[in-house]
Design a protein that fits this description.
Oligomer: single chain
Radius of gyration: 21 Å
Family: Belongs to the metallo-dependent hydrolases superfamily. DHOase family. Class I DHOase subfamily.
Keywords: Hydrolase, Metal-binding
Shape: globular
CATH class of one domain: Alpha Beta
CATH topology of one domain: TIM Barrel
Distance between the termini: 31 Å
Pfam family, one: Amidohydro_1
Organism: Aquimarina intermedia
GO molecular function, one term: metal ion binding
CATH superfamily of one domain: Metal-dependent hydrolases
CATH architecture of one domain: Alpha-Beta Barrel
Length: 448
């Protein structure tokens, strides 16, 4: 493995920005100091002047569709798009086909990623109403978390038996990550609008069907159950202002037992965007009103929300163009998440240090990921070089997703990811991909 020296770069790390040199050797940050000289003629030297070096982003919630749904995406195609977006590590969800609800199926996904992924990887194990014994067999040092769908499930992954749910919460030391929407509320709301409009319900009713009530009812139950059982709970993709009252910002993240995240689309879009974007911004939970969006952003700044993720969930253009009841929810986001957050930086809404905290440091803390998420000597050399003043426009020629579209098509971002390093190897440079798969399985600082 070649060594890398990045000269005169602005390092964004642990709440400060420091100009320095960074030397990488054998995939590790070896030295961070001023005026480092190349150790040998084989060292790759990069000029970091006027650029910013961020730790590689860790995305804790993606759907890469493999196995079984590979007409939409694969681990290879979406991890490739991820590194173009500065995401060097991902945690993928269990609702593939077959679902990741047995240890055998979990290990099969690890085998696929080991051969094909451009980014570091781990997977969540899926809970169901009838696999508690399999959950108990999991080695907490080898799996990212347990994922429970408390609404909007696929297949048999909706965990709707209260007795089983409490047993799961009480029986595992793993972090439990949950999708919270109340299924009964959504079914009743859907029936009302189907009676009125048939299958072609106007998309602007999506946040009314998948309502604030549906979200709060489910998330509040999950939080109450975590408090009752002492379980470690992480609530995915908050979408309403009301839910924020369930979360705390008075203690450090390491001490929190109950945490929450927000996704890029809930920070960027609002219900006003349905008119132009239609079902291409149909997500579960739904994009809601401007007041919700603004409250979520403020909660991010105030540390009630701990992590920024993507919930990257690609579907084909043809699938998304269906009528409301047939169009699947979800969209591709890994390539454009960091550029979108950097756009907020340019607008004065968030500091670079806060972006790094929420996208790099906090996922590493939350999931107890070993030696990633920071630019530190001795840590794995996952890093992203960013030019804050290199505008580019999202279009068909530079979209890397297998599905070939993005909800950001036509958007011009002021900041460009110029280089992405995974375990010290340059895997992406200015819209060019290198066929280097130096990714590793994520490891965790936890007892088995």
């Amino acid at each position: 493995m070649s060594s890398v020296l990045i000269k005169n770069v602005n390092i964004v790390n642990e709440g400060e920005i420091v100009n320095s040199d960074v030397y990488i050797e054998d995939g590790i940050f070896k030295e961070i100091a001023a005026n480092i000289s190349a150790k040998s003629p084989d060292v790759q030297v990069f000029d970091g002047e006027n650029k910013y070096l961020l730790p590689g982003v860790i995305d804790d919630q993606v759907h890469f569709r493999e196995p079984g749904l590979t007409h939409k995406a694969t681990i290879e195609t979406e991890s490739r798009a991820a590194v173009a977006g500065g995401i060097t590590s991902f945690i993928e969800m269990p609702n593939t086909n077959p679902q990741t609800t047995t240890i055998e199926k979990l290990e099969e996904k690890f085998e696929i990623a080991a051969k094909s992924s451009y980014a570091n990887y781990s997977f969540m194990f899926g809970g169901t109403n009838d696999n508690l014994e399999e959950i108990k067999k999991l080695d907490a040092s080898k799996v990212a978390a347990l994922k429970l769908f408390l609404g909007s499930s696929t297949g048999n992954m909706l965990v709707d038996n209260p007795e089983v749910l409490e047993k799961i919460f009480a029986s595992t030391n793993l972090l439990i990550a949950v999708h919270c929407e109340d299924e009964d509320t959504i079914k009743k709301n859907t029936a009302i609008y189907k009676e009125r409009y048939g299958e072609d319900i106007p998309i602007n009713f999506h946040p009314i069907i998948r309502s604030e009530e549906a979200c709060y009812l489910s998330s509040s139950k999950a939080v109450a159950l975590a408090k009752k059982t002492g379980a470690r709970l992480h609530v995915f993709h908050l979408s309403t202002a009301k839910e924020l009252e369930l979360f705390d910002n008075t203690i450090p993240l390491k001490e929190k037992k109950i945490t929450a995240e927000v996704c890029i689309h809930h920070l960027w879009f609002s219900d006003k965007d349905y008119h132009d974007k239609g079902t291409f911004i149909k997500w579960n939970p739904a994009v809601k009103g401007e007041k919700d969006r603004d409250a979520l952003f403020q909660a991010l700044l105030d540390d009630k929300l701990d992590v920024i993720a993507t919930d990257h969930a690609p579907h084909t253009r043809e699938e998304k163009e269906n009528v409301y009841t047939k169009a699947p929810s979800g969209g591709p986001l890994v390539q454009h998440a960091l550029p979108a957050m950097l756009e907020f930086y340019h607008e004065g809404k968030i500091e670079l240090e806060k972006i790094v905290e929420k996208m790099c440091h906090n996922p590493a803390i939350l999931f107890e990921i070993e030696k990633r998420g920071y630019i530190k000597e001795g840590y794995f050399a996952d890093a992203v070089l960013v030019d804050l003043n290199a505008p580019w426009t999202v279009n068909n020629e530079n979209i890397a997703y297998k599905c070939g579209w993005s909800p950001f098509e036509g958007t011009t971002f002021k900041s460009r990811i110029t280089h992405t390093f995974v375990n010290g190897s340059l895997v992406y440079k200015n819209f060019k991909f290198y066929d280097i798969k130096n990714a590793a399985r994520l490891t965790f600082n936890r007892p088995a």
